[in-house]
Each structure stands twice: as C-alpha cells, then as structure tokens.
Amino acid sequence: MRKTIPVILDGDPGHDDAIAWVFAKADPTLEIRAVISVAGNQTIEKTTINARRIAALLGIDAPVARGASRPLNADPVTAGNWHGESGLDGPALPEPDRPLSELPGVELMAKVLRESRDPVTIIATGPLTNVADLLLSCPELKEKIGQISIMGGGITHGNWKPAAEYNIFEDPEAAWTVFHAGLPLRMCGLDVTEKALIKPSEFPRLLAVGNQVAEIVTGWLEFFYRFPMQLGYSGAPVHDPCAVLALTHPEIFQTRELYVDIELEGEYTRGATVADLMGSTGQAPNVVCGMDIDRDRYVELLVEALKSYDGRCVPVI
Ligand code: BDR
Ligand code: CA
C-alpha cells in the first residue's frame, strides 16, 4: 500500500481540469487538502463557481478558495472557444454545497502547507499565477512542497500560439517563477497531453458505467470535443488529468529529465517552454517531462475512476 500524498488542486475549470479532479478524488492514494481556482479558461468568478460545483458533484470535502483574478504581468485571455461561456458548458451541475473559503487562494495554500506534517504536492492545471504568488510571498514554505505536477507547455509546439501552450502563455512570468524555483517539477505538456485523446467512439463506454459522474463526464467530453473536432483532432485532448496520473500512475508515461526555461520576450515565442534537448546549456534538468502516454491505459483508468462514483448522486440545478 502506497503512502497517501496530501495534494492541493489548483486549476481553472474547465472541462479537463474537472476530469483531472474526477481522477484525483477517485484515487485513494491522494488526499485532497484544498481546491484553489485561478483565472484562465474563464474569469475568476466563473472558474470559482465551477470549482465549487465540481467539488459538490464529486464529494470533495476540502475547502475551496478563490485564487488570482489575473496573471502576474500579462493581460488575461479567456478560452471560451474551448470551454464555452461558463468555462464548463454542457451538463447541468449541482449548486455548491458549502461556503467558499474566507481565505484568498494563496493564503489557503500557505495554511495547508504550514499545517501539514508531510510535504504537500501541488497539482496545477491552469495558469501558474497562484503557485508563483505562493512562492514569491511565502518562500519559507518551499520546503513544505513535495513536488509540483503541472499541465502546461509543450516542447515541440504550442496550441494557443505557434510556440506557446495556453496555460504558460496566459502567465509566462508565473511559469518562469515556478520553473526556476528549484523544486521537483513534473511537466505534462502538449507533447504528451495531445496524445491523451478520448475518442468519440469511446464515449458510450464511459456513459455505460451508469452513474451520475459518468453521465456528466461524458457530457463534458461531448462539449469539449466540439472545438478540437473542427481543428481536425481525432478525439478530445484531455490534457489536465495527465498532471494527476503522472503522480498516481507514472508507469503509463514515457518521460525525459530536461532543463526547460520559459521565453518571456520573444515577439513570436513569448510563453514558449524551451527545452534543452541536446544538453547545450550545461544546466541541470529542472523537470521530469512527459513525452508519451499509454492511451489505452488512460481510457481504462478513466473508466475505473468513474466506477468509483457508483452510488453517489446529488441533485443538479
Ligand atoms: C490547457 O488549457 C486549458 O484550456 C485546459 O484546461 C488545459 O489546462 C491546455 O492547453
Ligand atoms: Ca486547465
């Protein structure tokens, strides 16, 4: 039996953030200590209400706090083309079942770290604004962070700009702070997450699990696939769960240890994750970078995660 890992979920839900949290809550080796929203896919008001609704749906009983409303040093850009007007368009969801934490997101993160006997892992599936803010405002708490597992970046290409992935492009200065923190960092970028496809032919199998969470996750995927379908993807690239599975099921990934830096200046490349594939910088690796995934296992693990919600059903609005 593996030791339980205390985790903070930090994201901008978002369909794939929501599915990442489905995996996280389903895995008995993760103990969710807090959920923090961040502005990204939609405004902070929308990602926060979405986070609270997802917590109510899944039965996450950790506090949920509102995080940063804008990037450290960049203009906010939402991703309604991917996630819709609400940031989580598709099936009806429950109303939040508990009040929002009175603490701002970064303060709740700091409290969780301070009070934890064991190192806490941060699973970051949105722009890295909250994590950077935590590192800058409470540097003494760095030693309480076990590792940071992020969905972000891409070694070979971007998806928001030719060279930049959305989460990093949204707040490059925050990403720079995190990548230079000297903490153990797992990066699942587009190199692996665009291989984490769930294909429409697989949706009926998910629905057939037959519980409420399975029905809603299938509805999320049906919505989330609309935009990538227009772009020619053969399935929905369900990026964010990779940051969870990199911790719970590392065996389904191929990884490389690399030095990765963040481009802050380039006219065409701001927000790019630049990887030293040849070792030419002489810098020691700062990330374990996902390169490939066993997609069949990914789908299997989603089915297993959904089954764990058998018997749970909450009223939706
Ligand atoms: C990332 O951008 C967001 O739209 C998704 O939620 C994911 O975190 C993929 O580039
Ligand atoms: Ca996200």
**What small molecules does this complex bind?**
beta-D-ribofuranose, calcium ion
- Structural category: alpha/beta
Query: What is the residue-mean pLDDT, rounded to a whole number?
Result: 97
Low-confidence stretches: none
Q: What's the total number of strands?
A: 12
Rg for CA atoms: 18 Å
Biggest sheet, spatial arrangement of strands: 3-2-1-4-5-6-12-9
Largest sheet: 8 strands, mixed
Portion in helices: 25-40%
* SSE arrangement, N to C: EHEHEHHEHEHHEHEHHHEHEEEEH
Proportion of residues in extended strands: 15-25%
Number of helices: 13
Rounded to the nearest angstrom, the distance between the terminal CA atoms is 39 Å
Shape category: globular
Detailed description of the structure:
By secondary structure, the chain is α/β, with parallel strands linked by helices. Helices cover 36% and strands 18% of the residues. The chain has helices at residues 15-26, 44-58, 80-83, 105-115, 129-137, 166-170, 172-179, 190-193, 203-207, 212-224, 226-231, 241-248, 295-307; strands at residues 5-11, 30-37, 64-65, 120-124, 145-151, 185-188, 197-198, 236-237, 253-258, 260-262, 273-275, 287-293. Helix 4 (105-115) packs across helix 5 (129-137). The longest helix is centred in the N-terminal third of the chain and has 15 residues, at 44-58. The protein is globular and about 55 Å long. The protein starts with a strand and ends in a 10-residue tail after the last helix. The model has no long low-confidence stretch (mean pLDDT 97). Calcium ion is lined by residues 11-12, 14, 16-17, 41, 125-126, 240.
